[in-house]
Structures are given as structure tokens and as C-alpha cells.
Amino acid sequence: MSSRKKVLLKVIILGDSGVGKTSLMNQFVNKKFSNQYKATIGADFLTKEVIVDDRIVTMQIWDTAGQERFQSLGVAFYRGADCCVLVFDVTAPNTFKSLESWRDEFLIQASPRDPDHFPFVILGNKVDLDNRAVSAKRAQQWCQSKNDIPYFETSAKEAVNVELAFQTIARNALAQETEAELYNEFPDQIKLNANDNNRNRDGDNCAC
Amino acid sequence: MASTSKDNMQNICSHDNPEKDLEPGASHDSILNPTDSFEEFATEMNSSLEGRATDVTKKSSTISEIQSEIGECSKALKETKSSENLLNKDEAISSSVSNSNLQEQNGDDTESELDDYLKSPELVNKEKHVFILSSAGKPIYTRYGNEDKLAGLCGVIQALVSVVEEQNRDILRSIITKDCKAVFLVKGPLILVGMSKSNESETQLVLQLTYAFNQIVSVLTLTQLNRIFEQRRNYDLRRLLSGAERLIDNLLIFMEKDPAFLLGAVRCLPLPEKVRENITSAIISTCHKIRDLVFAILIAGNQLITLVRMKKYTLHPSDIHLLFNLVRSSESFKTAESWTPICLPKFDATGFLHGHVSYISEDCQACLLLLTVQRDAFYPLSQAKHTIADKLRRSYCLTAINDALNRNKDLTTTNPLKHIGIPEIRHFMYKCKSTAQLFTSDPISLDRLQDYRQRHKEGGDVVKKKVEKLSDMDYVRNYREFCSKIHCARSPAKLIFRSNSEDTILAWITNGFELYVTFDPLMEKDLAIRAVDRLLRWIKNEEKRIFIMNAPTF
Fold first, then answer.
1. Which residues of A touch B159 (CB under 8 A)?
2. Which residues belong to any copy of the FUZ/MON1/HPS1 second Longin domain (chain B) (predicted)?
3. Neighbour count for residue B477 (Cβ, 10 Å)
């Protein structure tokens, strides 16, 4: 098993509309931030190469629309994801409360093989703003109660923790990947001889 | 199109044809399974969403059938053919989708990275792109450029396909713009997309995508492919396919150049009847006691020399094409005897055959494939190969093969147009339908095909330049649209005659054959028809050389 192979990770970003999903992605991929708000229609797709422990990893980031009316796309988008990033706005408590249902929704729709250990990451965004309403402690507690989901406080505007958060996302997804690889060696060929008696052939000497 | 006449031309060549019931090349037995690939892919295009799921999974294994027969297992395996779901009512939907709002999101001042890459010289202006991705939207293969950098595009493709599928309960088949066709094919856990600026029809593109899918199946088997994605939908299939990209690359070039794919037929190496007989009997006498041997196939330069088979089993042309492609793409076969698992998707997509593959000798570029269901038969088959090679050398068959391969000027089949003596004919291709075999007036030589865009990762651009001397490949390009008209499911034409200042093309299909001829410009119809009559008589005369007329078994 070679660990030098190319890796591509599918990362889904979920969260209520306006929490800053697209901004986080833009900060991470393009190092840019815009104060203007534009709703995402359906989904955006961006890719970024990161290096994790000497491996080059391509992150295929699916930035989904937070608005209710685009949610029916769910199943298709979540299929085969390697990691899910849940985002809330630290100044808007209801976006924090929604995390539970976003997580449930994802697990139902994506139905990953091992839901208890599927890599999630929670991002509390907009920490640059003064009117904070969800404390770090409260968020951390919730994360701990969900099998210790990693929690980061970020600001897409000021590029706080964004890089670190995505590094962790890549690392955790990768860990899952290699773990699965260990006990999931695919056989080179399928067994076909189930009902073959394997009798000695009389043609071995190719007498003509 | 100057004129399209659908009148029956049955009487053209029937009166003085020696065997009027059999068209040139036809025989009662065929080594090849003469399924018409066009009809097959037309079906593919009309399949329904529900039919698709069962299509790739429910097929019994021919290999285990053979194994159980060899092991004299009494359990009879039933051949359950999945019935292709024929829903004709939903015709191909064509829609144009803009992904502009997908791009607009990323700030006003910059275009997204994806957008930049899509405009790079690596990708822009290519005649045909092929993308393969998993149903999760992860890139697996791209013909040009770097699939990692196309991850975003793959996401968009996956989104388009699934939106149509899940919200509209429908199938996205194609998107047609002014100068480009995009064709989508969902096969098992994979999504295949062809984007072409050439004159290929949608059906022809679907055919090519299906071949690309079958090439992947040939490496992995369908069972393994399905199981991988059942277990892990996020699987990055590139891991298992590393090394096989080259096979897909080559196959795509091959399909654009060789009419064999277009017509779903196999080319045979023209040989004197006696020589072919000797070769076949050398193989039979050597191998008839090897119990598990299913096929012995001798090929050279993408042409079939002979095929000996286990009773009851025939090969589909597309499986032979995959074998041609494998041999052509693998330099390593030239230097050593190889033992390799090969899955032939039409024969049995669920399992591997095991192949002893080697070139007959250093001085003869014919490659022998001995395919068995036995996993550890290398040594007996290696021994058989050497015995066969000796016999062929002693009976001067190798010389005859080399003559044909080097296109010796003394052979009538080397430059048939000279021998037929109809100067107005520039090019022709003929397919005998019952045996699925093909003959063209200017077979693509192996070298030319290999030179052609060998490093096509840099080539493959749309060319506007006019070529002075047309080759087989260029004629094929011209025949494409005639071919799709003749095979059009809704209103198939029997005969198409088009004459203009550049050339005159006649395409004719009967129950027995398909014929495409290019004449000089402004040729008159009755003159052309008389020429075709003579041409058919020549083919009939030469049929024993240019076609394999029997279907030998071990």
C-alpha cells in the first residue's frame, strides 16, 4: 500500500444561510474576503491543494446553499463525502441550534459506513464581530457530546484559524481514508474456482 | 445532401452473382457474435432510469458456467439475460445549462481558479474531451489535463446529472450547444462524459463512452467495480486504475481512427485461405487437449488472423477490440511471455479470464493470446505457444503473415483499388454483417496509427487545415454521418447517395452487409451503381482471403 498516491478529498460545507460558508471557502482558496453578501444557488465547487504530512491532497470543496429551497439537492451532493464541515455564526444562536439538524440530515442522506466516526468539523464563524452570542464553552460542550468533533473559532474576514481548520479537516479525512485502507485490501482477482474440481488436466504435455 | 433514395437496390448484383443467397464474406458459422452495436447503443440511449440499475448487475457468469462444465458439475447454470428496458418515449432531452451562477459567486473581481484552468491551453480547443468520475463526483480520468485540477468541473457534472435524476426522475443524456455536443452516460457507479466538437453523433459518442467503461471493467471486472463503490462510495478509483489510463487514452485514439469501432466489426488480416487453414489447424492440434482453454486468438496489427474457440462460445467484436487495444498498448508483451488476468465485458463482465500473451517470434509481429479459466495454466500454455510457433515456422505461415503485415505489393489485398480496376473509386469499406467482419481499401497500418498523436496529451486540437491526401482515417470521418443516418432508429435509410464537387459518397445497407464507397466528385448515380456491382463481385471473389469464413473449435 503506497501512501504516495494522489489523494482527493470531497469536503461538504453545511450550515444556515448567511453564516459565512462561501466566505470561509473563499478565504481558504483565494485568500479573499468580500463584505457583500450573495446567496449561493445550489452549490459552488472549488478545489485547493494542501500538503498534509508530506502528501499532496486535493480538496474538492462543495459549498452548498444554506437556504431551505435548495435543500432537495442534498442526497446527490452528500454522496461519497470524505468530510463534512458544519458552520454556524457565533453572533446568531439559532444558527448554532441548527447544527444538530444539519448533522443529522447529513448522516441520513449521506449514510456513511461508520456514522459514529465520520469526520465532522465545526466552525464558529464571525468571531471578529462584537455582538457574540454563543460562547466558546457552549460550542465546545456540544462538540464533545458528539464524539469529540473538533471545534474551531474562525473569522473569514480576518483569516483567523481558517487555514488551520481546513488543515485539520484534510488530516482527519485522510486518517479515515488510510484507516479504511488497512482492512480493506481489494483482492487482485475474484475467486472463480468455487465449483471447479481442479482435476488434473490431461493436456499438460501438449502432445499433438 | 444531394439525394437520399430509399429504394431497394436488390437487383443490382443479384443476377450474375454466383451464390446469390450469400453476400460477400458471409458464412453459416461465425466466430464473432454479430450483434449490431449501433442498435445496442441506440438502446442504451433510450434506457430508462429504472432499467439502468438492473442493466449492469444482473448477468450470469459465463466463466463459472465453463468452469462448472469442465468440472462436470451437474448444476446447470441458467443464462439470464437482463431485458434491456426499451422505453422509446423519452427521447434524448437536450437542454442548455449555464453554470454562470456557479461562477459568479466567487467575488466580482476575480474569476475562480476552476474557470482559469478550463481556459488553459491544456484544455481549450480540443476536439474531444472525455471525463470519467465516480457518482460521488470524484474525478477518475480525463483525456487532457490534470484530473485533480478538474475536481470542480467534476462536481458540476455530478450536480447536473443528479439534479435531473433526483429532482426530475429523468436522465440527462446530452447538452448541445452551437459547436459542441456533451453526452452523459451513467454506468454502474461511474459517470462518463464526452464533449465533442467533431461530427460524431450522440450515439457514436455513447458508443465510445461505453467502450471506455468496458475498458475499465476489463481491468477490474464489474463485480469488483460495483463492490468497491458499494463498500466505499468515496473511493478514489484512480488507485486501482493507475497504469490503465494509458489503455483508455489509446482506446480513444483508436476509436477515432479505425472504422472497426464505428461498424462494430473486426478486421481480418488478409491471408491465402490455405495459410489461414494451416495456422488454425496448428493451434487446434496443439491445444485440443488443454481442457480449460476457452479461446486461442492470433492477431497482428489490430487484425485478426484466427480465432479458435471452445464449442458454444463466441466473442463479441467489442471484446476483441479491447484485446487489440491491450496488445497494442503494452510494449511489455513484446519482450516476454505474459500471464495476465483479462476481463472481457461482453463475454463475462463478472470475472477474469487468464491470458497467456506473447508474440509468436522476434521476426513475426503476430501476437498469440491463449485465454483460459484456469488460474495457474501458465506453463502448459507457454509450452503450447512454443509448439504452435514451431509449427507455423515450419509451414511458412510466419512468412505469409509478415508478407500481409508488410503489405507486400504482390498481394491483391494490399492495394485492392489497383486490382479492382475502377479508377473512380477512391476508397471503400465493407462490413459483412453476419460474421461482423470488415474490409477497407486502405487499412490503417499499425505504424501510422501509433505515430498519430502518440503524445496526444499535447495534441488533439481541433484542426481546420485541409489535408491533401486523405487516408483511411479521414474517410472514416466522412462516413460517420452517413453511418448514423443509415442506423438512425427512427427513419433508417437503406441507401444514401451524395454527390458534390468534392467527392461522391454512396452508403448502402442490406440485410447482409454495409458498404461505404467514396468516388470522384460529381459521379453519376447509375455509373456509381455499376461500379459498386463490380466492387461487390471483387469482394466475393476475394472473400476467402479477406475474411475468416469458418468458425473453428478445439
1. 42-43, 45, 73, 76-77
2. 292-388
3. 17
| Position B268 pLDDT exceeds 90 | yes
Asked if residue B299 has pLDDT above 90, the reply is yes
Q: Kindly state whether B116 is in contact with chain A, defined as any CB-CB distance less than 8 angstroms.
A: no
CA distance A88 to B60: 51
Cβ atoms of A181 and A150 within 8 Å: the answer is: no
Question: Residue B56 and residue B167: Cα distance in Å, rounded?
Answer: 23
Closest CB to A47 among B67, B149, B351:
B149
Helix axes of A162-182 and A21-30: crossing angle, nearest 10 degrees: 90
Fold of A7-184: Rossmann fold (3.40.50)
How confident is the model at residue A133, as a pLDDT? 93
- The DSSP symbol for B509 reads E
Residue A97 pLDDT more than 90?
yes
User: CB-side exposure of A170: number of CA atoms within 13 Å?
Assistant: 24
User: What is the pLDDT at residue A72?
Assistant: 62
Q: For residue B135, give Cα distances in angstroms to A110, B14, B229, B237, B390.
A: 13, 53, 9, 11, 51
Rounded Cα distance, B21 and B510, in Å: 12
User: Does A42 contact B240 at a Cβ distance shorter than 8 Å?
Assistant: no
Residues of A in contact with B288 (CB under 8 A): 203
CB contact under 8 A, A80 and B287: no
Distance from CA of B111 to the nearest CA of A (A): 10
Q: What is the mean pLDDT of chain B?
A: 81
CA distances from B216 to A143, B51, B63, B71 (A): 42, 22, 19, 30
Sign of CA dihedral B400, B404, B409, B414: positive
| Closest CA–CA distance from residue B89 to any residue of chain A (Å) | 26
Greater confidence (B66 vs B312) lies with: B312
Q: Write down the ipTM of this complex.
A: 0.78
Of A23-27, A93-97, B28-32, B134-138, where does mean pLDDT reach its minimum? B28-32
Q: In terms of CA atoms, which chain A residue is nearest residue B156?
A: A45
3 state SS of A105: helix
Cβ-Cβ contacts under 8 Å for B476 (sequence gap 6 or more): B257, B258, B259, B262, B429
Whether the pLDDT of residue B379 is over 90: the answer is yes
pLDDT of residue B444: 58
CB B397 within 8 A of CB B404: no
Using 50, 70 and 90 to split pLDDT, how confident is the model at A181?
low
Question: Which residues of chain B neighbour A45 with C-beta distances below 8 Å?
Answer: 102, 114, 151-153, 155-156, 159
Q: How far apart are CA B46 and CA B39, in angstroms?
A: 11
Q: pTM value?
A: 0.82
pLDDT at B86 over 50: no
- The band of B45, judged by pLDDT with boundaries at 50, 70 and 90, is low
Q: Where are the domains of chain A?
A: 7-184
Contacts with A187 from chain B: Cβ below 8 Å: 224
